[in-house]
Design brief:
globular; single chain; mainly alpha
Length: 134
């Protein structure tokens, strides 16, 4: 790929990533608005927002999420973003990271179309939320 083409490609991916982060930020705000106060409020909202996103993704969104979330540079930015989102929670770090990694794995599997449907997502969501109630 010629250098100029690579720059255009990188700019397009950056814009696509920013667009999806913006969409997710709105879904996260909605989930936070519905989440009761508690020590795991932000991670619970994150799990809910990821699960809603997984269920509602169309084919184009699946392709975008799969390619972006598999790119190391975007994974770092995403992880930093979610670290900041969840930083105010008082839940123990191991529970928080277990929930985050499981939700993201579910999201990626759904994006790659390697899992079953909405019932599976709902089941995993309930199990992860139960961890935050312990």
């Amino acid at each position: 790929m010629p250098p100029f083409s690579r720059q255009v490609h990188d700019i397009a991916l950056d814009e696509l990533f920013e667009y999806h982060v913006s969409l997710f930020r709105h879904a996260l705000e909605d989930a936070l608005g519905a989440e009761a106060p508690g020590p795991a409020r932000h991670v619970r909202a994150y799990v809910r927002a990821v699960c809603v996103s997984a269920i509602t993704m169309g084919p184009n969104e699946r392709a975008a999420v799969a390619s972006l979330m598999c790119a190391p540079e975007y994974r770092v930015i995403w992880s930093d973003f979610i670290d900041e989102v969840c930083s105010g929670d008082a839940v123990d770090p191991a529970t928080q990271m277990t929930c985050r990694y499981a939700a993201e794995g579910l999201w990626l599997d759904h994006a790659l179309e390697r899992m079953s449907g909405p019932d599976h997502v709902a089941d995993v969501q309930q199990r992860l939320l139960a961890l935050t109630n312990a």
